[in-house]
Each structure stands twice: as structure tokens, then as C-alpha cells.
């Protein structure tokens, strides 16, 4: 029987993060979700039977404090899933305010860096052969007009994944990313309802002709963090129905 690990999922209150947390919990791990929205995080944790913390991943001091709390209550983090990110701020190159790009990069890149750095330091100090899984996007490799700020941040997350993987390999800590295409979250289902021209336009770009489900992304994260992926590090696994082929 697999020994339970302590798994920390940022941005775990909803969407992909919630699905990832549920998948690790179903696998028998001790799961802690961390998110900015205290009430929603608490409600999600209660509904899934897992644990929760309120956290701003861009605040280095807060990250350190919360990791200390998690360690004291559940032991060292053995799997970190960096899912928290800013997705809803978009604009064209000619129109996007610099302050908006700064906010995107601050959350999606700097926040992911701070979480990875501080968790990895603790893994090294404890002698743990841990795993980090970053939630990226195929947008880092395939541009969509109007989404360049977000996509640039995800290209940076892929680079950060490789950076961390090569430097942490000597400590037997693996770092990978899951790069979804469009994912059918509740927010996506509302914004792009089935049968709408906008939804059809997106699906026409995907060779498998459908969006990924949250379960598709969660399964990839669980795989990359598990023993069956023990010789995989530094990769960004596309979960996109073949969209990068088109």
C-alpha cells in the first residue's frame, strides 16, 4: 500500500486546482490546498475532506509562515503543485497596460518561483526526494491574439520548470509541468457555452475536437508526481487533444 504523502496545491479552491486536490486525495495522500479566497478555500476543503490554508503566493514571508504551519501539522511537503495563477487579465500588445503585465508576471512567475524555492529548500534540508508539478499552458508555445501576457508568463513557467529540474536533480527532486489547452472548468463552461460559435471556434483548433476535462489535467499531475514517472524531470506535458500539432 502506498505511503501517504503531504501534497500542497496552490490555487486549490476551484477549477483545475480543486480537481488536482481531489485526485491526490483519492490516491490516498494528505492534501492541503492554499488560496487567496479564505471562505472558498475553506468550503472546498470541507467538501473534499482535505485541509486548507489562506495564502498569497507572491508574499515571500507569508509563504514561509504557511509552509512552517503545514510542516508542523502534516509533516514536510513532498509534492508541490503550483496551480495558482492569474488567468483573467488579457489585452493586445498595443493595449495591455504595463501594470497588468506586471500583475500577471508577479503571480504566475514570481509566485511559482517563490513556492518552488521555499518548498525545495525544505525538501533538501529534510533529505526528501520530492516532486514539483507546475500547471503551465500550451499557450506558452502557441500564441493566441489578446492572450500574450498570460502566455508569456506560462512560457516563463516552462523555463522555470527546466531551471529547477536541472538544479534540483542532484537532490533527487523532480520538477515537471502539465501544459493544458482549453480546459472545461465551470468558468469556461459559462463563458463558452456548448454550441456557441466561440466554443466551436476553439474546438475546431483541437484535433480531438473537444476541450480537456479537469480530470484529464489532474490525472497528468498525479502521474508526474508519482513513482511511475520516477525518471521524468524537466518536461512540460501537453494535455491539449493534439492542439500543438495544428
From TrEMBL:
Give the matching InterPro entries: KR_dom (IPR057326), NAD(P)-bd_dom_sf (IPR036291), SDR_fam (IPR002347)
PANTHER family assigned: DEHYDROGENASES, SHORT CHAIN (PTHR24321), ESTRADIOL 17-BETA-DEHYDROGENASE 8-RELATED (PTHR24321:SF8)
The organism encoding this protein is Streptomyces solicavernae
- Pfam families named among the record's database cross-references: adh_short_C2
Swiss-Prot/TrEMBL keywords: NAD, Oxidoreductase
Q: Does the keyword Oxidoreductase apply?
A: yes
Q: In its UniProt entry, what is this protein called?
A: SDR family NAD(P)-dependent oxidoreductase
- State the similarity comment: Belongs to the short-chain dehydrogenases/reductases (SDR) family.
The Ketoreductase domain, residue ranges:
5-196
**Xref: NCBIfam families:** PRK07231.1 (NF005559)
Is the keyword Chloroplast assigned to this protein?
Answer: no
Amino acid at each position: 500500500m502506498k505511503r501517504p504523502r503531504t501534497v500542497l496545491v496552490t490555487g486549490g479552491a476551484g477549477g483545475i486546482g480543486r480537481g488536482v486536490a481531489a485526485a491526490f486525495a483519492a490516491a490516498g495522500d494528505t492534501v492541503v490546498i492554499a488560496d487567496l479566497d479564505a471562505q472558498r478555500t475553506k468550503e472546498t476543503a470541507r467538501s473534499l475532506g482535505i485541509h486548507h490554508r489562506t495564502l498569497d503566493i507572491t508574499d515571500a514571508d507569508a509563504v514561509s509562515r504557511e509552509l512552517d504551519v503545514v510542516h508542523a501539522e502534516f509533516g514536510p511537503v513532498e509534492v508541490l503543485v503550483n496551480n495558482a495563477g492569474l488567468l483573467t487579465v488579457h489585452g493586445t500588445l498595443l493595449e495591455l497596460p504595463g501594470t497588468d503585465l506586471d500583475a500577471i508576471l508577479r503571480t504566475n512567475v514570481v509566485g511559482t518561483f517563490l513556492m518552488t524555492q521555499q518548498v525545495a529548500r525544505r525538501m533538501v534540508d529534510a533529505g526528501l526526494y520530492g516532486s514539483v508539478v507546475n500547471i503551465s499552458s500550451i499557450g506558452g508555445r502557441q500564441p493566441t491574439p489578446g492572450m500574450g501576457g498570460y502566455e508569456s508568463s506560462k512560457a516563463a513557467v516552462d523555463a522555470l520548470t527546466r531551471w529547477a529540474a536541472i538544479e534540483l536533480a542532484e537532490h533527487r527532486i523532480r520538477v515537471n509541468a502539465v501544459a493544458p489547452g482549453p480546459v472545461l472548468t465551470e468558468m469556461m463552461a459559462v463563458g463558452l457555452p456548448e454550441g456557441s460559435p466561440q466554443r466551436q471556434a476553439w474546438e475546431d483548433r483541437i484535433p480531438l475536437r473537444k476541450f480537456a476535462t479537469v480530470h484529464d489535467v489532474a490525472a497528468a499531475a498525479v502521474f508526474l508526481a508519482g513513482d511511475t514517472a520516477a525518471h521524468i524531470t524537466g518536461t512540460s506535458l501537453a494535455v491539449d487533444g493534439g492542439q500543438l500539432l495544428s
